[in-house]
Structure formats: C-alpha cells, structure tokens
Amino acid sequence: MSAYDEYLGQFTLLQQNFRKLNPPAECQQLHQAYDYALSVHINTIDALKQFIANRDLTGVALFGLTVQNQIDKTLSVADKELARICQHYDIPKPFKIGDER
C-alpha cells in the first residue's frame, strides 16, 4: 500500500505543479486536456488502492479492463491538441503524449 501512496503522492504533486503554470491562450485547451488526463491517473491509482485495501481482486480485474481505455483516450485528446498547436505554428511535434508500455 505504501507504493500506491507514494505513486499517488507523486502524481498529485505533479498535477499541483502543473496547475501553477499559466500557458498562453493558444495552449489552454492542451493544458486542460493534460490536466484532465492527470486527474484520471490520480483517480485510477486511488481506486486501485481502495480495491486492494478491500481485498477486492474481482474489482481490480474488472476496473483494469476498462480504465486503461479511458486513460488512453484522455492522453490521446491531449496529444491531438499538441499536434494541432504544432501544425498551427508549422513546427515538428517533438514528442507523443501517452503511456509508455
């Protein structure tokens, strides 16, 4: 459980620091999309922690089947927004926003 607490704490701190940023107007949608993706990650970690604390292995399995798709979608929205900004300014997209597996 301490590993989940540490991981949750790291993502929470990341989101707190991220929310302190003041992006230019052109990047507001990207900022909001990535903030939402961070929220989904935080909620996922917390939910998994609760399932494990309650020894609900069925809940973990069922949750795992659906949550990765949701995480992928939120990251994809942010990545598409990054691509839109790069295309608008005619610059190469330097990275992909997504989970590494």
Could you say how many structural domains there are in total?
1
The number of helical runs is: 3
Give the termini distance in whole angstroms: 23 Å
Instruction: Tell me the radius of gyration.
Output: 16 Å
The residue-averaged pLDDT reads 91
Instruction: Please give the number of β-strands.
Output: 0
Listing every helix as H and every strand as E from the N terminus to the C terminus, the arrangement reads HHH
Sequence stretches where pLDDT stays below 50 over 5 or more residues = none
DSSP strand (E) fraction? under 5%
- Taken from the alpha-carbon principal axes, the silhouette is elongated
Structural class: mainly alpha
Instruction: Classify the helix fraction into a percent range.
Output: over 70%
Task: Characterize the largest beta sheet: strand count, sense, and whether it forms a barrel.
Answer: none
Describe the structure.
With about 100 residues, the chain is mainly α. It has one domain. The protein is about 75% helix and about 0% strand. The chain has 3 helices and no strands. It is elongated and about 50 Å long.
